[in-house]
Inverse folding.
């Protein structure tokens, strides 16, 4: 009982203060603006890297098409990525000094996939107090089919390839420059699944996104 | 109690618009750089068109028949009739070298001066050209060219007033018809920046003989002379000038605007035709954005006066601002009054929030506090209403005290700033500022100009500054009284408001009374985005604030 009274005594002034504040400064203010940039049909042309694997580094090129159902929800209908792989020094060392078989180093060859895109954040930022820029942050969730090269020398293009399914998870940001042109920076991870989680393919992509279909 | 003042803008707007010359469309704030032309002065390298080549390469151009030779005995430059003393009068108090008669200079000095000018050595060119002018009779063929290029040197060195003085001399003397068109064009460009309105607008363009003027200037001169007639209330005379304007030119549009404003001033009732005319003018691409916005504001104000608040709101929406431009406080305040009259209380508070932005912190807007108090009162938020009303007397307490004590109101910083923020006072303040800056700049050229020219220009600037200060003080004195009246009226209304709100605060609530139905909450469409305001103002949001504020009014019908 005493505790309850003590609690009430403590909370009383805070509640009174809040009420007084509300009486003196009633209401909340919201700056309501029409969205300057709205996406509709988006063609994405990107370049990037697959930096994670210790035995090769991939230089990637990607093309994708995204259809935006609303300002916050879109479907990346299709994306296709091609990787040009460069052997690292570690792999060279393993192959030449320790005779490790090339088949032990599966490499990303290309991949296709489709995702849903959720854009919960749309914001603006000030550039040197001179101009206002708009951006958005989005997440991607989807599936990929990955083609991996399993054997032989990458440069010669020989060796067997296999297909692997993967779950694609990504996070990206878009900076708008005009109503038709924006730039995307995507970080994504493909969880390659084959008899359990086989490997991860991390991709960093910088893309030019062309928006079609009116943004007024 | 709805008898609080709503702004009667028409009269104020008319006075303001009439007093404000609509800027020309040409955006260039600085005069065009000098270019040698076919009609250039009689220098060997650039013989004037239509003049026979000079007999000797090194000699100045052959003087036209009937004029004394260039090597005629040197005489001090004659002060032109009609030019202000600042520009011409040799100073009686001058001492030292400047008081001595000018030494004779070689006629080649003119050519050297021109060469320096075209080589970009304006300081040296100015010194040589001034020496030439001092020692050459005004009848010399090159005299007017020397004055013209001396003016160009000054303008290039950002000494615009000095440039205007010499251009004005050329325009007054009219000794060389070839120089005149260029001179008038240069003067026209100078009207885009703060300038001596009496010297350029009235004494030059307002009194030019229009018969001989080139097309590029005649429209402007006709417009200026029509404007002078309009200001003295003679529309018929003004029309004789305006009908000569090229229909497709900028001046024709500006003349239409001036005519409409004048008619509005004299009209007892506003007809729809006037509003339509302003609306049409607001679409005229030949006018500057500022002038088009003025026309839109005129439409909005006229519709407001006719109680067509929806129409007024549409006109306010048409006002275009450059990207990230905060706009004008009066625009927001007028729109706020319009929305208040439409019953859009929350949008009104949103616009009043805009007026609290740092961009408008120094604006003199006593109405703002009254309107805020009115909105809160209508929402039965009596404490905020009382606080908003008190805010006016708190914020302007020093100014109100000065008024009550009958102090010199021009010394009150708020009233002074308010008075100098618009109309003729603003223009004279800007001109005074520009003279101050140019006067300081002049010191930098003391070495390059030489003693005689520097002393001469110092005198020119001192006299011009004194005259500009006198005009500014005179205008300030008049306009500061208007601002004080505005403040006093607002303070009176605030007292009424405080009294009314005080009564409401202690009004007994009837038994069984219920809160009135609340306005539905603000919902955003899919195309909209809302940024919660936390006191940080973004210029791109200034017209976008919406306020959610509950009404505390009690429904009628309690026991």
């Amino acid at each position: 009982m005493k505790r309850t009274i003590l609690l009430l005594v403590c909370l009383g002034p805070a509640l009174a203060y809040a009420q007084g504040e509300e009486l003196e400064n009633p209401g909340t203010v919201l700056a309501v603006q029409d969205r300057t940039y709205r996406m509709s049909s988006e063609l994405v042309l990107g370049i990037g890297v697959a930096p994670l694997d210790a035995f090769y580094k991939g230089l990637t090129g990607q093309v994708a098409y995204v259809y935006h159902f609303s300002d916050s929800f879109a479907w990346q209908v299709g994306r296709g990525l091609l990787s040009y792989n460069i052997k690292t020094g570690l792999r060279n060392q393993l192959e030449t000094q320790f005779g490790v078989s090339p088949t032990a180093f599966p490499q990303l060859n290309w991949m296709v996939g489709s995702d849903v895109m959720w854009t919960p954040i749309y914001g603006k930022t000030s550039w040197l107090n001179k101009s206002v820029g708009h951006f958005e942050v989005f997440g991607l969730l989807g599936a990929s089919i990955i083609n991996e090269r399993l054997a032989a020398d990458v440069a010669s293009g020989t060796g067997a390839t296999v297909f692997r399914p993967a779950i694609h998870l990504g996070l990206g940001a878009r900076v708008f420059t005009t109503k038709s042109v924006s730039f995307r920076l995507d970080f994504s991870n493909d969880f390659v699944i084959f008899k359990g989680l086989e490997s991860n393919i991390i991709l960093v992509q910088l893309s030019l996104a062309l928006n079609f279909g009116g943004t007024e | 109690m709805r008898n609080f003042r709503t702004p009667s803008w028409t009269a104020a707007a008319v006075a303001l618009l009439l007093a404000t010359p609509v800027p020309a469309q040409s955006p260039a704030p600085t005069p065009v750089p000098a270019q040698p032309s076919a009609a250039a002065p009689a220098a060997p390298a650039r013989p004037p068109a239509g003049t026979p080549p000079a007999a000797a390469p090194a000699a100045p151009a052959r003087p036209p028949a009937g004029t004394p030779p260039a090597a005629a005995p040197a005489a001090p430059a004659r002060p032109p009739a009609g030019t202000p003393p600042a520009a011409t009068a040799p100073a009686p108090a001058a001492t030292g070298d400047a008081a001595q008669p000018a030494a004779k200079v070689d006629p080649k000095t003119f050519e050297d001066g021109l060469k320096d000018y075209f080589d970009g050595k304006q300081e040296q060119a100015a010194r040589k050209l001034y020496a030439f002018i001092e020692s050459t009779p005004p009848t010399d063929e090159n005299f007017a060219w020397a004055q013209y290029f001396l003016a160009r040197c000054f303008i290039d060195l950002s000494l615009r007033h000095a440039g205007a003085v010499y251009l004005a001399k050329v325009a007054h003397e009219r000794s060389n018809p070839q120089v005149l068109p260029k001179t008038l064009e240069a003067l026209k460009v100078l009207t885009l920046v703060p300038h001596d309105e009496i010297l350029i607008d009235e004494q030059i363009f307002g009194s030019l003989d229009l018969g001989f003027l080139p097309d590029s200037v005649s429209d402007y001169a006709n417009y200026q002379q029509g404007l002078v007639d309009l200001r003295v209330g003679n529309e018929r005379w003004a029309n004789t000038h305006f009908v000569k304007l090229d229909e497709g030119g900028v001046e024709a549009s500006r003349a239409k605007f001036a005519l409409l404003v004048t008619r509005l001033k004299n009209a007892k009732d506003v007809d729809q035709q006037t509003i339509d005319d302003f609306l049409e003018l607001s679409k005229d691409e030949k006018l500057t954005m500022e002038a088009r916005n003025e026309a839109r504001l005129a439409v909005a104000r006229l519709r407001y006066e006719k109680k067509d608040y929806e129409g007024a709101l549409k006109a306010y929406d048409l006002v275009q601002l450059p990207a990230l431009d905060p706009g004008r406080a009066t625009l927001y305040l007028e729109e706020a009054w319009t929305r208040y009259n439409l019953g859009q209380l929350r949008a009104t508070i949103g616009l009043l929030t805009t007026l609290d932005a740092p961009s408008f912190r120094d604006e003199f807007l006593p109405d703002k506090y009254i309107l805020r108090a009115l909105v809160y009162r209508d929402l039965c938020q009596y404490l905020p209403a009382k606080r908003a009303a008190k805010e006016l007397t708190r914020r302007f307490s020093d100014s109100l005290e000065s008024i009550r004590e009958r102090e010199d109101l021009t010394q009150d910083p708020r009233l002074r700033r308010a008075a100098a923020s618009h109309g003729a006072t603003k223009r004279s303040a800007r001109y005074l500022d520009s003279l101050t800056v140019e006067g300081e700049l002049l010191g930098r050229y003391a070495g390059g100009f030489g003693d005689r020219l520097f002393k001469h220009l110092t005198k020119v600037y001192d006299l011009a500054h004194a005259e500009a200060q006198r005009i500014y003080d005179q205008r300030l004195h008049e306009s500061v009284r208007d601002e004080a009246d505005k403040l006093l009226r607002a303070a009176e209304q605030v007292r009424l408001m405080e009294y009314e709100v005080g009564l409401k605060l202690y009004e007994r609530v009837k038994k069984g009374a219920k809160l009135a139905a609340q306005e539905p909450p603000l919902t955003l469409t899919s195309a909209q985005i809302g940024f919660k305001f936390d006191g940080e103002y973004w210029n791109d949001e200034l017209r976008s604030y919406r306020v959610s504020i509950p009404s505390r009014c009690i429904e009628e019908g309690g026991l």
Strands of chain A lie at 28-34, 41-50, 56-68, 73-87, 107-127, 131-149, 161-176, 181-193, 197-212. Chain A has a mean pLDDT of 85.
